Amino acid sequence: MGNTGKRITLTLRQRNTTTNVLTGVTKPNVPGDPDYVAPVVDAVACPIDTVLVCPDFVMALSGADSITWELSIPRSVLNNPAFAKVRIHLWNDTPVELQTVTLLKAEFTPTNYKTAVFPGLVIPDTYVVHIQYLDAADVEILACNNAASIIMDPVITWEGTEPICLVTPSCTLPAVYEPVTNTCQAVDQVPATPPSAGGGSPGIASGIQNNQWNNGGAQIFNPGYPLNGTGTVAAYLTVPHFWINGNFQWDATGRNFVDGRMNWAGVWEASNPVEWIGFVRRIDTPVAKTVYVAMSADNAFRFSLNGVLLVDCDTASGVITGGSNFNFWNIYPVTLAPGTNYIEMWAKNYGGPAGFAMEIYDMTFAQLVAATSQADLVVLFSTHDMVGQPFDLGTGLGWSCPATYSLDTTGAGDPVCRKVVSTPPSTVNTGTKHYNSRRRLADGVPDGYSEPNIVGGLGPVIPDVVDAAACPIGPPTTKSVFVVNETGGLVVIETDLDTYNFAPGMNGDIWIATTGIFINRSASIWKFTFLQSMPSTLAPSEAPNPETLAANNGTHMLNIDISTLNYVRVAVP
User: What stretches of 174-237 adopt beta strand conformation (E)?
Assistant: First the structure.
């Protein structure tokens, strides 16, 4: 430690004031003593030490990519008037300078000690520190090369965090599991009401055109449009003779009976009815997707998705932005759910000229905006192709369904009304634990870094582990038996896990171990039974008389919670 320029008295000696001779008695010089002698400035006896010497500097690993360092500046350096700052240089052994830290002299008051971290380092590597003392002009007054070094090569490991138990979803037959929406989907079906006019036959679509239609071009609406069909317009499409009827928008002299999408795809029924008529299209998609439904009508139009009304312009003059319902070709984005979707499109006339046109595009917004001709369109449905075909929908001239149901014309025979019913699946633990995240350890100690447990991070994917204690395996909350077909003595039975066929000659007891269902057949007439409780040691033939359920083709025979049952039995009386 260097001199501070102050002289301190440590011991007091007793002196005879008469003879001025020391008596040999001494005592410590402590504050509070009446004889205490305070420190005094004495630069001659205690010259201030200003020698420049290198500091004490140490480093230690702190995590997988950081080094913690400690610096102590000697007092003699701080006393030196030329010293203004210290600069720390971190190099690797390539050598390449990686980081620098500059500390001012004032930062070492009142203590001469500092600590901090070199972050974000690459491992493994060797790191060396060089230190400079600088004056106020950044001129070096002392260099301390190789002040410290460290080899950074910790053992890096990873461990999983945020564990969850993996579950298996299950659905009660005949519903099937849809993984994208995580729902059980089943179709409820009822007969459609046939047309009341024309002897029960639907009306026929005739092609029709009008020189007033689509004089404004086309408009694409943003998602979130209200039920009345208005909303914010994302783009106006104004290609002459394709989107616009005429040479330019609102061309009163050049409009004709050919231009525009409504003239291309316009249809109506010959009797000019005053009722809602239209078409339905079923679209099956394995994933969610967006299509565009385009419509014009003289006078009103509406459309629904899976029985839910999305747009209804039920007015003679129309409420579409920019004029009546036939001035524009109105295009709406519609998001389809994975699986089966039904789009119903309707139109209605309130007197005078009549007609409507409807199309469904499997295109992106950008592709629609860029389209300039028929060849640019990807069309899933167009009323242009329905000329000469029967109308699907109508109260008198077409088929109709109850509210929330959609007409399905894809099967053989008469159309039917269907509704997709979605319900949450039941789940059961699989006994497997999954980690949503992982964290990094340096020499077995977490260093504070973590990331999602997915491919593409710094660390490896932590695999799922079997852990029946943390994730106890549980049975499904429900199981079901469903009779698929029952003709000529052959019975086809579906369970939650598989399908089984039983011929008339298969008499006796049949045990389906994978599903926990017991089937017994000894006659040609089937009845299905389940046991509320039964000792596991009791043979099926020894079971008490169980409750019976009559078998009917296409109906559920069992849909109950059987998680506590020893087995389920399907048997004759």
Answer: 176-178, 183-191, 205-207, 217-221, 233-237
DSSP string, 260-282: SHHHHH-EEETT--SS-EEEEEE
Give strand pairing partners of 23.
none
User: Torsions phi, psi of 511, nearest 5?
Assistant: -110, 125
| Residue % of the chain over a pLDDT of 90 | 54
Global pTM value: 0.52
Together in a domain, 273 and 405: yes
Q: How far apart are CA 197 and CA 203, in angstroms?
A: 8
CA 549 to CA 555: how far, in whole Å? 11
The span from the CA of 288 to the CA of 180, in Å, is 8
Task: Name the DSSP class of 286.
Answer: S
Query: How many structural domains are present in the chain?
Result: 4
Burial 517-536 (b: 16+ CB within 10 A, else e): bbbbbeeeebbbbbbeebee
202/197 Cα distance (integer angstroms): 7
User: At residue 475, does pLDDT exceed 80?
Assistant: no
Residue 458, Cβ neighbours under 10 Å: how many?
12
- Contact call for residues 71 and 129 (beta carbons, < 8 A): no
Of 409, 427, 447, the residue that ends a domain is 409
User: Under a CB-based contact definition with an 8 Å cutoff, are residues 515 and 170 in contact?
Assistant: no
Task: Output the CA angle 373-377-382, nearest 5 degrees.
Answer: 110
Residue 277 has a pLDDT of: 95
**DSSP per residue over 422-480, as a string?**
EEPPEEEEEEEEEEEEEEEEETTEEEEEEEESSTTSSSPPPPPEE-TTTS-----S-EE
205-207 and 217-221 beta bridge pairing: unpaired
Are 187 and 421 in contact, with CB atoms under 8 Å apart?
yes
- Say which residues have a Cβ less than 8 Å from residue 395's Cβ, sequence separation at least 6: 196, 275, 276
Q: Of 154, 184, 216, which residue is a domain's last?
A: 154
Q: How far apart are CA 326 and CA 266, in angstroms?
A: 11
Amino acid at the residue 198: G
CA distance 328 to 168: 50
Distance, in Å, from the CA atom of 156 to the CA atom of 459, rounded to the nearest integer, reads 9
The range of the structural domain enclosing residue 88 comes to: 56-154
Q: Cβ contacts of residue 346 below 8 Å, gap of 6+? A: 276, 277, 278, 301, 302, 303, 393
pLDDT recorded at residue 498: 43
